[in-house]
Amino acid sequence: MERDLSFLAELNQVLIRHIPREANRLADFCAKFCMSNDFVWTDIVMTPPEFLEILRYDLERVSSV
Fold first, then answer.
1. 21-48 burial by CB neighbour count: b if 16+ within 10 A, else e?
2. Does this model's pTM top 0.85?
3. Residues near 58 by Cβ (< 8 Å), separated by ≥ 6?
4. Helices marked H in the chain — which ranges?
């Protein structure tokens, strides 16, 4: 059985890397969010507040280390 993989030509970049469980809150939010919503935000105003809160918290933690 042949699969159509032509969509891969449209990808600009894919990055896969290990993230420790304690730093996985943003990925968890994104996975749950995309199950019931569109995951394309063309403007920062469209970004869900919860996403920005988790991102801000994580950045503050990294900055304090």
1. eeeeeeeebeeeeeeeeeeeeeeeeeee
2. no
3. 23, 25, 26
4. 25-36, 49-63
In percent, how much of the chain has pLDDT > 90? 0
User: Which positions ≥6 away from 54 have C-beta within 8 Å?
Assistant: 25, 26, 29
Count the helix, strand and coil residues of the chain and give each as a percent rounded to the nearest 5: 60, 0, 40
Burial class (CB in 10 A: 0-12, 13-18, 19+), 52: exposed
